[in-house]
Amino acid sequence: xxxxxxxxxxxxxxxxxxxxxxxxxxxxxxxxxxxxxxxxxxxxxxxxxxxxxxxxxxxxxxxxxxxxxxxxxxxxxxxxxxxxxxxxxxxxxxxxxxxxxxxxxxxxxxxxxxxxxxxxxxxxxxxxxxxxxxxxxxxxxxxxxxxxxxxxxxxxxxxxxxxxxxxxxxxxxxxxxxxxxxxxxxxxxxxxxxxxxxxxxxxxxxxxxxxxxxxxxxxxxxxxxxxxxxxxxxxxxxxxxxxxxxxxxxxxxxxxxxxxxxxxxxxxxxxxxxxxxxxxxxxxxxxxxxxxxxxxxxxxxxxxxxxxxxxxxxxxxxxxxxxxxxxxxxxxxxxxxxxxxxxxxxxxxxxxxxxxxxxxxxxxxxxxxxxxxxxxxxxxxxxxxxxxxxxxxxxxxxxxxxxxxxxxxxxxxxxxxxxxxxxxxxxxxxxxxxxxxxxxxxxxxxxxxxxxxxxxxxxxxxxxxxxxxxxxxxxxxxxxxxxxxxxxxxxxxxxxxxxxx
Length: 501
Hints:
The protein is α+β, with helices and mostly antiparallel strands and 501 residues long. It is 33% helix and 21% strand. The strands form 6 sheets. It has a 5-stranded mixed beta sheet with strand order 8-9-10-5-11. α6 (244-257) runs antiparallel to α9 (313-328). 33% of the residues are buried.
């Protein structure tokens, strides 16, 4: 009824006449529908993947890049202000092309209805909506600059953001305008700049006929404590937190599957969807739901939502760990600090097939791999060989483990920049996740070290030539190493010989 009242859909005969189609013509596709119930709101979802070929199979949308809370944290000025807004029926702002309308029909109580606007359930929907919201943000940025307010460079139309930083508290600056599908967040350095940008945003949305939702929690005027994307960003204490309600809801979702011998794909994806927000604050938790994702992935590319699979010991351990993490919070908010000093200088690591090395904070260490690893490193299995092989990514991760064991306790409550010349390892740290059974325990140990000392590890790639010192030290135990180069590196790049730590 609501979709009909807003003219987002209409009976097929009416829409066919609008399209100039001959009387009695049938729609190309009639798609199944589902429903999502969320906070008392009923949302109709179209199954765009139904049929062969399906509508979704024919679509190849560009990548959708969404901002995250790390970007919001980078835009927070001490005692600054921020505002947020949410569109009503965001996807339904997008009018379908006439050729698409016959593909977007549904059957309800014996009648066929056609969508005039984009519904939920099509593969290209998120990318299209993100592009629309970014267009609004880019227009707002130009409007503010023309009005004389300093505004950060807006995101590009490929959804990517330039580097974000926060202006000083004594300035009037829009640090960032973040677009997340139908949500917009403005992070500013002062109350005046926040209200100025918020007022211009509302006027712009009115001019563009973008309907803004003013329900509680949807659109908030400038304030120092802003609830944004499921987090509480406090510009006074400069912390970002999970509120108590989210903690309680997540614990309830974990309890619902605790003790079960099996679970459905739907339940697993729902639980992962609930947990995926938490590691922004509780980073260590990210390595403890990998088993859920692997279990669903093992079922194939498109498992049925109702398909059941056994709860493995790894899944059970992950759920138990999340329970313990939340128990430690005592129902209070999980908080992470925005303002972290960065350790001066950068550390770096390297691993070869014969040894490992790290350099940082005026210290260095290096050593050879255990002798019993010699026949397992970097060699393919021969027929009938049951010995597990050790590949370079695992070795590179071991080098980071050795560095963290030594340096992380020295830089509590700080950010440590580490350079690694292996891109897959850098990607593991970007996601704090890996499919490698050998690498996951190493990543888990690093996460626990970081959590214990409240350290953020900023892992960045470096080319091998620029990584001269650890690269040379890691090859110290190779038969073809250059003794003269090794001696030169130790003499010229190190203030003192290795202490053997």
